[in-house]
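FIELD: query
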Amino acid sequence: MDKLSALQMFVATAEHGNFSRAAEQLGKTPSALTKAVALLEAELGARLFERTTRRMALTEAGHLYLDGARQALLQLQLASEEVESLQRDLCGNLRISAPPSFGPAFLSQVCCGFLTEHPQVHLEVELNDTYVDLMDGGYDLALRDGPIDLPGVIAQPLMENNLLLCASPAYIARKGASVTLDNYQEHDWLIFRHPLINRRFWWVQREHERIRIDQPVPRLASDNYDFLLACLLAGQGLQFVPRWSAAPYLARGDLVEIDALYWREPSAFGPQIYLMYLPHRRNTRKVKVFIEHLKSYCGTHLPGLCQDSAGLAAPIADPA
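FIELD: result
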């Protein structure tokens, strides 16, 4: 029995918790898996599982060996994918995580264009506000506009995330475009609710002056950004909108940027949107090509916001 097969059987056994379920998943016999684990234990001189009549569990040595075995199998899989990709068109699965608001703003267009160019690639795109674990979730790439100080993850800036105060022409015709610290409470506000955003006050600034003001009572509040954006376009109030989201509506005249005397500071989501991936995904061809496609789209359709439209830039957080 070769070492690679033994490692695959050991990992499957650890993940399923017994030989029978692991054997069924691999299309092997339970005795083959028992033999593989016994060979590894003999080679290591340590028990990998504690076995009783009712259950089996990894030993301390088993936990350590499982981490190494997973990494070894992952590296071999990645190397195989890279060698295969050199000889044929881009193919395989690409798993992406991003906040829901990125979908209609730009990510859906990016993904559709990417699929058209690479018909043998299968995309799985999960849109949620949860900060997923890239390793446990099996994600190739994540786009995030929040905290990026995650251990073992490379974060690369994609585009600016600054806020604009916007309203529709219909709202301005009804309520006016003057927004000052004296009258801002008189306006109708659409406010995005999120655990990272303070509900009681805003920080605003002008040049070097920084002031804390009470957050106005919202005319409409929601935890769904796209719902609020639709209400903003319908003339229901004022809203602070990321430039990447507002850009096409500003260009068409559907929204107008309000020239307030004081500007709200960048939100808790931070001043940048980042591409995030694990170090072993750095040179994966399908990840690199998708990032290049994403940057090209943003550079064309969101000019002035994209950090670098020429392929992969140097990561800002690269673990040793």
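FIELD: remark
The CA atoms of residues 94 and 123 lie 5 Å apart.
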